[in-house]
C-alpha cells in the first residue's frame, strides 16, 4: 500500500521559534541557495546527512512519531478530522516518496473525466502534469490573477447577492421569530456556487431559487458525494493502479463523483460555447467573460477548458461558503466588532449604496475581517509541496523530491506571529492610515507562489461584496440554538455544528 508506506512522519513539539518551512518575507526574497543554507538547531547526536560531522542531519533523524504511530493516529483515531489540531501539537509533517523532476503539489483529483481519459490518477507522469499545468495556469492567470482583472465581474456578483438577500427575506418570513435563518452554510453554499458558476460559465444556475433545477441538484449531489467520500478519495488517488482490482470500491466511488462533477461542467461549457458559435455564425461579435475568452483565444483545447472549469468549480464552492459561514459566525459572536465594521461601511459607502470592486479598498475593515477569518479558520488547514531542490531547514537536509506539508492552521495560532493569536481581532491587519498592507507569512490561506489559489481574487470579491451588503441591511445576531461552534477537518476546515443566526433588519 503505497500511501500507507508513505504515511506522515511528524516531529513533536517543543515548537521551534518559527516553523522552518514558513516562508518569512525575508526568506522569500533571498536567493534559493541562501535559503537552502538555513542552519537551525538540530537534535544533538542525531545522524548527519552523508555521514559528515557538523553537516546537516538526515531526514531520517528527524524526531517525531514513526509510521506506525501515524497509521494509528490517522486511520484508527480518525486523525484526518483533527488534522488542524494535530498540527498544533506537531512541528512539521513530512511524507517521503512522490519524487519527480517537476515542481508540483500532490494532487488527488483526476482533473478530467475518467471516462474520457482513462483511469490514470494524476501524477503518473509528473513531467506532463508539470508542463501542461503551467500552460493552463498561465492562460487563466491573464484573466483572473489580479483584483482589477476580476473587478469586471462585480455586476454579476451583485445580481447574485440581490437574489441571496431576497432568499434571506424569504427564509426569515418562514421562521417562527421572523428573523432566524438555520444552517447558514446551506445558504452560502448556494451563493458561492451561483457566484462562481456565473463567472465561470457566464450563466445562472438557479441555486437561489425556491425550486432548484434538476441538473444543479445532481451536481450538488455529486459534490456531496465527493466530500462524503473525501477520505476514501484521498486514499483512492494514492492507490497504485495495480492494486485497484483488489480494492476497487474507493477508486470506483472517486471516479463516479468526479465524473458527475465533470459532466455538469461539460454541459454548461457546451451550452455556452454553442451560444457563442451561433452568435459568430450570425456575424455578431461575441462578448463575454472568462469562458468566452478561453473559447475565442483558442489557447486551451476544449478538454482543457472542461477540466479547468470543473476543477475551479469544485475548488471554489465549499472554500468560499465555509469562509463566509465562519465570518458571519465571528461577527455574530463579536457584536462590538460588527458594529465597528458597520460604522465604517456607512461612513465610507453609505447605507444603501451597492458596492463595486472599486469601493472595497474604501472599507479596509471588511478586508481585514476576511483575513482574520481565514487566519482563525484557514479553510485549507494545510497543503503540500514537493521540494524541487535539496534544502537545509532547521538543521535537517530535506532531499529534493520530498513531500512537505505546510501547516497553515498551526502557524496562524502562534503568538509569535500574531500576538494574542486566539483572539478575533480584525484590526490587527490594519496599519495606521492604511498606508501599507500588513504581510504576515504566518497566515497564507490561499497558499503561496506559482501554485497558489487561482480563484483567490474571485473569492475575495464574492466575500467582500456580500459582507458589505449583509451588514448594510442586517444586524447579525447569533441564534440561541447555536452554542459554541467547533471546527473539524473534513478535507476542508468546516463548522462541526450547524450555525443558525438571526438577520435583524436595520432601521
Ligand atoms: C476563501 C476561499 C478560498 C480559499 C481559502 C482557497 C484556498 C486555496 C489554497 C490554500 C489552495 C492551494 C494553494 C497552494 O498550494 O499554494 C488553493 C488552490 C486552488 N484554488 Fe482556491 N481557495 C478559495 C477559493 C477558490 C475559488 C473561488 C476558486 C475558483 C474560482 C479556487 C480555485 C482553486 C484552484 C483551481 C486551485 C488549484 C490551483 C493549482 O494547483 O493550480 N479557489 N485554494
UniProtKB/TrEMBL annotation:
InterPro entries xref list: CYP11_CYP27_families, Cyt_P450, Cyt_P450_CS, Cyt_P450_E_grp-I, Cyt_P450_sf
Question: What membrane topology was assigned to this protein in its record?
Answer: Peripheral membrane protein
Q: Give the highest taxon in the source lineage.
A: Eukaryota
Q: What is its main location?
A: mitochondrion
Q: Which UniProt keywords apply?
A: Heme, Iron, Membrane, Metal-binding, Monooxygenase, Oxidoreductase, Transit peptide
Q: Does the keyword Oxidoreductase apply?
A: yes
Q: Return the Gene3D superfamilies for the record.
A: Cytochrome P450 (1.10.630.10)
Q: Which cofactor does it need?
A: heme
Biased composition range(s): Low complexity:
44-58
Give the UniProt family note.
Belongs to the cytochrome P450 family.
Q: What is this protein called?
A: Cytochrome P450 27C1 isoform X3
Amino acid at each position: 500500500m503505497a500511501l500507507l508506506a508513505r504515511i506522515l512522519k511528524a516531529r513533536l513539539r517543543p515548537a521551534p521559534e518559527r516553523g522552518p518551512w514558513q516562508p518569512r518575507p525575508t526568506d522569500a526574497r533571498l536567493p534559493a541557495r541562501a535559503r537552502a543554507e538555513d542552519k537551525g538547531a538540530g537534535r544533538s547526536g542525531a545522524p548527519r546527512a552523508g555521514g559528515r560531522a557538523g553537516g546537516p542531519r538526515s531526514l531520517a533523524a528527524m524526531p517525531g512519531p514513526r509510521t506506525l504511530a501515524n497509521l494509528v493516529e490517522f486511520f484508527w483515531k480518525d486523525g484526518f478530522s483533527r488534522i488542524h489540531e494535530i498540527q498544533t501539537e506537531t512541528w512539521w509533517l513530512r511524507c517521503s516518496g512522490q519524487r519527480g523532476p517537476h515542481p508540483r503539489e500532490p494532487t488527488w483529483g483526476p482533473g478530467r473525466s475518467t471516462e474520457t481519459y482513462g483511469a490514470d490518477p494524476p501524477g503518473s507522469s509528473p513531467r506532463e502534469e508539470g508542463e501542461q499545468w503551467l500552460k493552463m495556469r498561465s492562460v487563466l492567470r491573464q484573466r483572473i490573477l489580479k483584483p482589477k482583472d476580476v473587478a469586471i465581474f462585480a455586476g454579476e456578483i451583485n445580481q447574485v447577492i440581490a437574489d441571496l438577500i431576497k432568499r434571506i427575506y424569504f427564509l426569515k418570513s418562514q421562521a417562527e421569530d421572523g428573523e432566524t435563518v438555520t444552517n447558514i452554510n446551506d445558504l452560502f453554499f448556494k451563493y458561492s456556487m451561483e457566484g462562481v458558476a456565473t463567472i465561470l460559465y457566464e450563466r445562472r444556475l438557479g441555486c437561489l431559487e425556491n425550486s432548484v433545477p434538476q441538473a444543479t441538484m445532481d451536481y450538488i449531489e455529486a459534490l456531496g458525494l465527493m466530500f462524503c467520500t473525501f477520505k476514501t478519495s484521498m486514499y483512492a488517488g494514492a492507490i497504485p493502479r495495480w492494486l485497484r482490482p483488489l480494492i476497487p470500491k474507493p477508486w470506483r466511488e472517486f471516479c463516479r463523483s468526479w465524473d458527475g462533477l465533470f459532466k455538469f461542467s461539460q454541459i454548461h461549457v457546451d451550452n455556452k460555447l454553442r451560444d457563442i458559435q451561433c452568435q459568430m455564425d450570425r456575424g455578431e461579435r461575441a462578448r463575454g467573460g472568462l469562458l468566452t475568452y478561453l473559447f475565442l483565444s483558442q489557447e486551451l483545447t476544449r478538454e482543457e477548458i472542461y477540466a479547468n472549469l470543473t476543477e475551479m468549480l469544485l475548488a471554489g464552492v465549499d472554500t468560499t461558503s465555509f469562509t463566509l459561514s465562519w465570518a458571519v459566525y465571528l461577527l455574530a459572536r463579536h457584536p462590538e466588532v460588527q458594529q465597528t465594521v458597520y460604522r465604517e461601511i456607512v461612513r465610507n459607502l453609505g447605507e444603501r449604496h451597492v458596492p463595486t470592486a472599486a469601493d472595497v479598498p474604501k472599507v479596509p475593515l471588511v478586508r481585514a475581517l476576511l483575513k482574520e477569518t481565514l487566519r482563525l479558520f484557514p479553510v485549507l488547514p494545510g497543503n503540500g509541496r514537493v521540494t524541487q531542490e535539496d534544502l537545509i531547514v532547521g538543521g535537517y537536509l530535506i532531499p529534493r523530491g520530498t513531500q512537505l506539508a505546510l501547516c497553515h492552521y498551526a502557524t496562524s495560532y502562534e503568538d509569535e506571529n500574531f500576538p494574542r493569536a486566539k483572539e478575533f481581532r480584525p484590526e490587527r491587519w490594519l496599519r495606521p492610515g492604511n498606508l501599507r498592507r500588513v504581510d504576515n507569512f504566518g497566515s497564507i490561506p490561499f497558499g503561496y507562489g506559482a501554485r497558489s489559489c487561482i480563484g483567490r481574487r474571485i473569492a475575495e470579491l464574492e466575500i467582500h461584496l456580500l459582507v458589505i451588503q449583509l451588514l448594510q441591511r442586517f444586524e447579525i445576531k447569533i441564534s440561541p440554538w447555536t452554542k459554541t461552534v467547533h471546527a473539524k477537518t473534513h478535507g476542508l476546515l468546516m463548522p462541526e455544528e450547524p450555525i443558525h443566526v438571526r438577520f435583524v433588519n436595520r432601521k
